[in-house]
Amino acid sequence: MPSARRRLLVALAFGFAGAALVYVALRLVEAVWFPEANPAIVIWSDRSRFVWRALIAAYAGGAAIFGGHALATRSIDAASRWLGRAALAAALALALQGALVP
């Protein structure tokens, strides 16, 4: 695989891991400081918290792509090691968030 394509794939993977981590952070902040109303009481809402969390997480994941690309350009081996750590952190964070704050 060409080196430029490998760097882009690593950067994209950093973006996905970053988006997952930001989504979990946003969900935890909302759960602690802004608890949701009881769904049985609220019939219709003009905004969806999930959609906004997902959009902000996607935006932050897009920003993480630049960091991943910079790291992959400097050293693809270091980027691969950090990508493994970031993916593991994102998976653990999503699992804990799903278990503790569904």
TrEMBL record:
Keywords for the protein's UniProt record, in alphabetical order: Membrane, Transmembrane, Transmembrane helix
Transmembrane segments: 50-70, 82-101
Source superkingdom: Bacteria
Protein's recorded name: Uncharacterized protein
Annotated organism of origin: Polyangium spumosum
